[in-house]
Amino acid sequence: MYNDTITAISTALGEGAIGLVRLSGPNAYEILQQVFFTIKGKTRKSFESHRLYYGYIADPAIPADPLDEVMAVYLASPRTYTREPMAEISCHGGSVPLEKILNLTLRMGARHAEPGEFTLRAFLNGRIDLAQAEAVQDIVRSKTGPALEQALGQLAGKLSQRIGVARQKLLSALAQLEAMIDFPEDDVPFASVSPQLGETLAEIDTLLATADAGQIYRQGIRAAIVGVPNVGKSSLLNALLRNDRAIVTPVAGTTRDLIEETLNVRGIPVVLVDTAGITATEDMVERIGIERSRQAIASADLLLLVLDSSRPLHSGDLELIAAVQSELAIRPTTKAMLVLNKTDLNQGENENYKLESELNQKLPELPRVSISAQTGDRLQELEDALANLALGGQNLAGRSLMITNTRHRRALERAREHLLSAIASDEAGMVADFISIDLRLAMEAMGEITGESVQESLLHEIFSTFCIGK
């Protein structure tokens, strides 16, 4: 499908110890041969595949003017990432040598690669399937150990194998139906295919049961820390990060803008958003910060409502509780937790009882954790509760396979719908033609995951999100 040679910088932009320029295509060997020179200034007559060579890169028209000292390797097809001839040039990681070497390979006849084009070629040439190709992007973007483990498992083909076995069962059922359709004169006896379809349906349900948690491990969640001024929101952020990220003072209203930091909570990437204390104010800057806080609440997946446990609720707390209740009613998928801070401050039993009583009355459904952001007391309990709430009570960390990709989830859901329809038709005694229509659509939906049935527009959509050079 692709018969030209592409080139790109495959390492991140900016300064680094090493940078990599990669080529793939029929002319990769010839281009490397023309631009690579030994340390004595001579060209190489041949390159042994998969062997590193030390030298420098220069324009063949002016070989005495090196662009950079490099290590280069030629990779013969098919034992390459793309299954095409490839060449990789490792130079110093500054932007100048990388750009110069890239521009030289372009002048020598290569074309600049599109985003994800190396991985696209690996897919089109049959080295990996589409689910494995998407796993490459997930590996690059993984922020926690569990996210990386899931991506590596998908790259190794665990999801593809499960999908392949399930599709094979459907193919067997389809062959049985087509025998009845194509050879009616042979009196092929009718046999229900519902048991076979039911097995595949159960497999799909098993995979879909992991999707919510899988997408959280892959994408993470946004957790907004909300509360009235001076309840310890910024202290809580610093305590969870184990770092003084936010300014903390006894003066109310210190935080006037949103502060975002990513935290690994039991393998879940959690973007913590420290918001300005929500209260009535005439200060214009503070009002802007409060408005941004309200926007952060509206876009958060999880709300940490921080209250001062050393005193009873006051009007500001009650207004904020009402705002959180309203948000939860508007967006039922949003989750919330009460964080009762300042347990290190002495307080009489009557006051404790009064606060708990008020909360039981106003927010009985919300989980709560009592902590001290100042001393760090029960922070681990808060992290456990946060992870448990984010995962809806499921604990799937360490599971060998989860559905982490929204596209895969939607494809499985479509396959499930068609299987239910096929089973209903089968049990209603419908003719084989009707059953086979839904069966084919179910197989097509599952084939979209691995790329066995995929349109070019979908490939463009998927690979356009990749880095250039990957």
Automatic annotation (TrEMBL):
Record key words, sorted: Cytoplasm, GTP-binding, Hydrolase, Magnesium, Metal-binding, Nucleotide-binding, Potassium, tRNA processing
Q: What class of enzyme is it?
A: hydrolase
Gene Ontology terms describing biological process? tRNA methylation; tRNA wobble uridine modification
Please list the cofactors this protein needs: K(+)
Q: Which Gene3D superfamilies match?
A: P-loop containing nucleotide triphosphate hydrolases, Probable tRNA modification gtpase trme, domain 1, tRNA modification GTPase MnmE domain 2
* One Pfam family it belongs to: MnmE_helical
Q: Quick one: which residues bind (6S)-5-formyl-5,6,7,8-tetrahydrofolate? A: 22, 88, 127, 470
Q: What is its EC number?
A: 3.6.-.-
Recorded GO CC terms: cytosol
| Positions with a binding annotation for Mg(2+) | 234, 255
Q: What is its main location?
A: cytoplasm
Annotated residues for binding of GTP: 230-235, 249-255, 274-277
Establish whether keyword Signal is in the entry.
no
> InterPro entries in the record, alphabetically?
G_TrmE, GTP-bd, GTP-bd_TrmE_N, GTPase_MnmE, MnmE_dom2, MnmE_helical, P-loop_NTPase, Small_GTP-bd
Record-linked PANTHER family: TRNA MODIFICATION GTPASE GTPBP3, TRNA MODIFICATION GTPASE GTPBP3, MITOCHONDRIAL
The record's comment on protein family reads: Belongs to the TRAFAC class TrmE-Era-EngA-EngB-Septin-like GTPase superfamily. TrmE GTPase family.
User: Which proteins does it associate with, and in what oligomeric form?
Assistant: Homodimer. Heterotetramer of two MnmE and two MnmG subunits.
Name listed for the protein in its UniProt record: tRNA modification GTPase MnmE
